[in-house]
Design a protein that fits this description.
This protein has 3 helices and 6 strands, in the order E-H-E-E-E-H-H-E-E. By secondary structure, it is an alpha+beta fold.
């Protein structure tokens, strides 16, 4: 089954990466279309993102079939600093920058055919021991990705 109408997961991912880079966040150009979070301390702050899941609900019996599409965009953020509080602040600032470049930007939705942002979840944590504190966050953005027509033939 191939998508013949609607925005693909890859196109959404690539556009989101480009928008976050263009927004001039603290991560700069260290925004990657991947699930990897294996960054070295000298590579932080950094962001990795991917489309985590997609649910399709069939709308028509016609051929080719049309589907309402829901997707989850997962954005992984990593930041570090000399103390817990400054690393936490750096992580929070980067979260806000990413939200502004995605959920807060109407053009992100229009370009990617997003009909509604159903919600967003932010989860934070700390990892690593040593001289620098490393904070991470995961943003999960649930979107209605518009309609898609798939060639099932």
């Amino acid at each position: 089954m191939a998508l013949i109408e609607g925005q693909s997961r890859k196109a959404l991912r690539d556009d989101t990466v480009a928008r976050i880079i263009a927004a001039g966040t603290a991560a700069g150009s260290r925004v990657y279309p991947a699930q990897s979070v294996g960054f070295g301390d000298d590579e932080l702050p950094a962001i990795a993102l991917y489309v985590d899941s997609e649910t399709m609900t069939r709308l028509t019996q016609a051929r080719p079939p049309e589907f309402a599409r829901m997707q989850v965009v997962k954005i992984l953020i990593s930041a570090s600093a000399a103390t817990d509080s400054t690393a936490d602040d750096a992580c929070d600032a980067l979260i806000d920058e990413v939200i502004s470049a995605t959920v807060g930007d109407r053009a992100w939705g229009e370009t990617n055919g997003i009909t509604m942002i159903d919600g967003m979840t932010v989860m934070k944590g700390i990892s690593g021991e040593g001289e620098r504190a490393i904070y991470g966050a995961t943003l999960q953005i649930q979107i209605q990705a518009g309609y898609g027509t798939y060639d099932d033939g």
